[in-house]
Amino acid sequence: MPRLRTRPAPQPDELWLSRPPYLMIARIVEVGDGVAGDGVVSYVLYDEDGSVLEVVERAALDDGFWHAFQPLARRQG
After folding, report:
1. Neighbours of 62 (CB within 10 A)
2. b or e along 10-29 (b: 16 or more beta carbons within 10 Å of the residue's beta carbon)?
3. What per-residue confidence (pLDDT) applies to 40?
4. pLDDT tens for residues 18-62?
5. CB of 16 within 8 A of CB of 72?
6. 3-class SS of residue 60
7. How sure is the predictor about 5, in pLDDT bands with cuts at 50, 70 and 90?
8. In Å, how far from its chain's centre is CA 21?
């Protein structure tokens, strides 16, 4: 039986790291429903120094989002 692939849904105030070759962080502002029932996400994009690069409003929460970003895993210790 094939394994079902699940993706973590972004939540407000979470940080997501861009996938290589770039080093950017997206702070999720809002997650909602789109026009055809698809998800949308709004986020603020920061560079490696913490400067705001762009504010993205209601971008499609599709394969492109998951190809561009991954959840930022915080590690202690």
Report:
1. 13
2. beeeebbebeeeeebbbebe
3. 93
4. 998 889 999 999 999 877 667 899 999 999 999 999 999 999 998
5. yes
6. strand
7. low
8. 16
CA atoms within 13 A on the CB side of 21: 0
Place of tokens 């490696």: 48
Q: Residue 14: which of 60, 77, 69, 76 has the closest Cα?
A: 69
* Largest Cα–Cα separation, the chain: 46
Question: What single-letter DSSP state applies at residue 51?
Answer: -
Report d(CA 60, CA 33) in Å as an integer: 9
pTM (predicted TM-score): 0.82
37 phi, psi to nearest 5 deg: 85, 0
Q: Please report, as a single letter, which amino acid is at residue 64.
A: G
